[in-house]
Design a protein that fits this description.
Elements: H1 17-23, E1 39-40, E2 50-54, E3 67-69, E4 72-76, E5 85-87, E6 92-98, E7 104-111, E8 114-121, E9 132-133, E10 138-141, E11 154-159, H2 165-168, E12 188-190, E13 202-203, H3 205-212, E14 224-227, E15 234-238, E16 249-254, E17 260-268, E18 283-288, E19 294-298, E20 300-307, E21 313-318, E22 320-322
Antiparallel strand pairs: 1-5, 2-4, 3-12, 4-11, 5-10, 6-7, 6-9, 7-8, 8-11, 11-13, 14-17, 14-22, 15-16, 17-18, 18-19, 20-21
Length: 326
């Protein structure tokens, strides 16, 4: 995968500023959660109407076989993803805005060891390097792709570095480069490498968001989840997340799009996961049901609409989404 696109540094000019300001808080959430999802349509909850077709550390066989995906590719479940709004997943500082990826890349630093990266954005709505953003601020919109390489989508990463010598510095370990100290990075890591992407600084984005959503570990009274439009059929109800001691199925619940449930607790996988398929995604919510019943439901569900060369799922759908007040 030796792609070396022409670098295009880009800072939003005055002509884009009114449009940016007008769209900046289209779907900002109140400060009930420190982290949120990175994509959405206007007037809908972030994440509703989307699926991760190529998950973290899964193989993208139709585009780049033999390589692990270093982030998540978010696509609309129906219609074109182009124009979907891209949200900052947490408070932070824009440290990079540029590059012909194709499209703009925006990178936000949330902490000394945590960055979020948003690729394939439309230039007209981009953030500006040096700007402070809040969770839910609009960073851009998904670019309408015309390069023929892939349909329009958001490439989203969570990682511990901006530039790193062996990943996107002046001496990338596996010859994958987008230029000298290119902040976007390759977006992929070879399957036959001795290191898992987590071992070189990438993180499972879904796990990062879920684990850091409530820093004190307690969900506020107003926290809810909503059944997404990707959900169908029923969801199993469990006494504890599958795999936990004593976990057993205690029933099921019909998945009716738009239904809301009080969110009581979150159980998410490790940020530094070393799984290599969508089966490694772990996101469970404990919800309040009728008659004071409490149960755990699986929110992130592996899907075989995309698979690796070994036949394991590469895609992830979300049956339940955070539904914090707006």
């Amino acid at each position: 995968m030796n792609r070396n696109p022409t670098r295009r540094a880009f800072l939003v000019g005055a002509t884009a500023s009114p449009l940016l300001a007008r769209n900046r808080r289209v779907h900002a959430q109140q400060d009930t959660s420190a982290f949120g999802l990175p994509i959405g349509f206007p007037d809908r909850l972030p994440g509703d109407g989307f699926i991760v077709r190529h998950g973290y550390a899964t193989e993208n066989t139709w585009f780049n076989p033999g390589w692990f995906h270093a982030g998540e590719d978010w696509y609309a479940t129906s219609g074109d993803t182009a124009g979907a709004l891209i949200y900052a997943v947490a408070d932070g500082d824009v440290v990079f805005a540029g590059w012909e990826y194709p499209g703009l890349v925006v990178i936000v630093r949330h902490a000394d060891d945590l960055y979020s990266m948003y690729g394939h954005l439309d230039y007209a709505l981009s953030g500006e390097a040096g700007e402070r953003v809040k969770r839910g601020d609009v960073l851009g919109a998904v670019l309408a792709r015309t390069d023929g390489l892939a349909p329009s989508h958001l490439h989203f990463e969570a990682r511990t570095f901006l530039t790193k010598t062996d990943v996107n510095g002046d001496a990338p370990r596996y010859g994958v480069t987008c230029g000298f100290q290119c902040p976007p990075g390759p977006g992929y890591w070879p399957i036959d490498a001795p290191e898992h992407p987590s071992e070189v600084g990438w993180r499972n984005p879904t796990h990062v968001i879920a684990r850091r959503a409530f820093p004190n570990g307690e969900t506020p009274d107003e926290a809810e989840v909503v059944v997404s439009d990707a959900a169908t059929g029923t969801a199993e109800l469990w006494s504890a997340p599958d795999g936990a001691d004593g976990a057993r199925q205690i029933g099921d619940v019909d998945l009716i799009v738009g239904d809301r449930y009080r969110l009581l607790a979150v159980d998410a996988g490790r940020e530094v996961t070393t799984e290599t398929s969508a089966e490694g995604y772990r996101l469970w919510y404990r919800i309040a049901l009728a008659d004071s019943e409490r149960a755990w439901v699986r929110a992130a569900v592996p899907s075989t609409i995309e698979t690796g060369s070994d036949g394991r799922p590469s895609a992830v759908r979300f049956d339940f989404l955070p539904a914090f007040p707006v």
